[in-house]
Q: What sequence folds into this?
């Protein structure tokens, strides 16, 4: 079995989602610029086409817009049993300044993907997106769609405040109530817009520099979740960190354990070592997988912190830096394939059906 924990469905024309909005919001988006950003739209220029060219249909500029084509190009070709859909167009609201508009937009996209993708192929499962700007509205959206059998996670775009901040507590509580994990994926807005996460040392000067530094956002948020006591406060919460890689986790876990052991009084909210919280509550996705000259070094590093227990497979289809499932899975040590391909994902995505004999 193969579960791909990072597939990005796209809408060729986002105005298609307007039909899923109340009339007043439909009118609003038809008369206002769709991207209501906290800064001028000056994201670092992408050096190449942002999508795999073989994922872009003729006459289209965006990859991954056709559920039938994606099913053939990705799922059938690579024998993928489940695709966890994380809509990036929805996650982009992290940089918006109109909180109500952001909530209306992600709600419409959730309904669109449930109908047009999950309704087309049962292998598609959706992480509904919630707006991070309004935790109460986000909790209501989780309650609205949380019982849908095709909803298996909650996608939470990150703001400038880390995930351990109590601002997010209503979202965590709502996710736990519905038995859904929280998936956190970089949005493309990091280090670009106000309200979104920054990277250490100041603004990067190029796309390549920014892209190389995005692991910092994953590290900072994992440390915040653990050391601010969120995983103790919500003992049933599961968190999936996607597209931050995983090779950095060893050093961070060692440092967190050291700080906790050296000064437990400074972290009264933690009853256990940080490494124990990570193992129980957190999963890290493979993409973008690091590729040293000796591929074995990546897996050796992972084993040092028992990473075979919390790493899940992800492709990032249809983006230009998609990790080809055939290559990644072939590179896995034989004793890790089952865990990384599907067992670890089943532990964090309890809504997925468990195949017989596992």
A:
């Amino acid at each position: 079995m193969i579960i791909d924990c990072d597939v990005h469905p796209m809408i060729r024309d986002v105005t298609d989602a307007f039909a899923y909005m109340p009339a007043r919001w439909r009118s609003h988006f038809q008369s206002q610029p769709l991207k209501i950003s906290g800064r001028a739209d000056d994201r670092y220029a992408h050096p190449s086409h942002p999508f795999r060219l073989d994922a872009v249909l003729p006459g289209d500029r965006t990859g991954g817009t056709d559920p039938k084509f994606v099913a053939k190009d990705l799922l059938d070709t690579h024998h993928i049993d489940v695709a966890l859909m994380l809509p990036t167009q929805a996650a982009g609201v992290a940089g918006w300044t109109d909180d109500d508009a952001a909530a209306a937009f992600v709600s419409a996209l959730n309904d669109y993907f449930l109908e047009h993708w999950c309704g087309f192929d049962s292998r598609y499962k959706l992480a509904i997106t919630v707006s991070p700007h309004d935790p109460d509205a986000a909790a209501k959206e989780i309650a609205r769609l949380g019982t849908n059998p095709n909803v298996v996670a909650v996608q939470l775009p990150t703001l400038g405040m880390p995930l351990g901040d109590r601002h997010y507590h209503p979202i965590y509580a709502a996710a736990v109530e519905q038995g859904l994990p929280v998936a956190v994926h970089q949005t493309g807005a990091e280090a670009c817009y106000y309200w979104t996460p920054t990277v250490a040392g100041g603004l990067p000067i190029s796309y390549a520099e920014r892209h190389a530094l995005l692991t910092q956002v994953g590290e900072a948020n994992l440390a915040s979740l653990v050391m601010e006591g969120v995983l103790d406060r919500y003992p049933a919460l599961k968190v999936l960190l996607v597209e931050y890689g995983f090779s950095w986790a060893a050093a961070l876990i060692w440092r967190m354990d050291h700080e906790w052991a050296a000064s437990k009084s400074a972290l009264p909210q933690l009853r256990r070592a940080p490494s124990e919280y990570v193992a129980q509550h957190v999963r890290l996705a493979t993409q973008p997988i690091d590729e040293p000259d000796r591929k074995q070094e990546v897996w050796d590093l992972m084993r040092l912190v028992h990473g075979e227990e919390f790493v899940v497979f992800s492709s990032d289809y249809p983006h230009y830096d998609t990790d080809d499932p055939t290559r990644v899975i072939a590179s896995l040590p034989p004793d890790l394939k089952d865990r990384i391909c599907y067992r670890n994902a089943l532990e964090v995505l309890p809504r997925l059906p468990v195949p017989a004999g596992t």
Q: What stands out?
A: The chain has one domain: 3-348. Residues 99-118 form the longest helix (20 residues). Residues 203 and 209 are 9 Å apart (CA to CA).
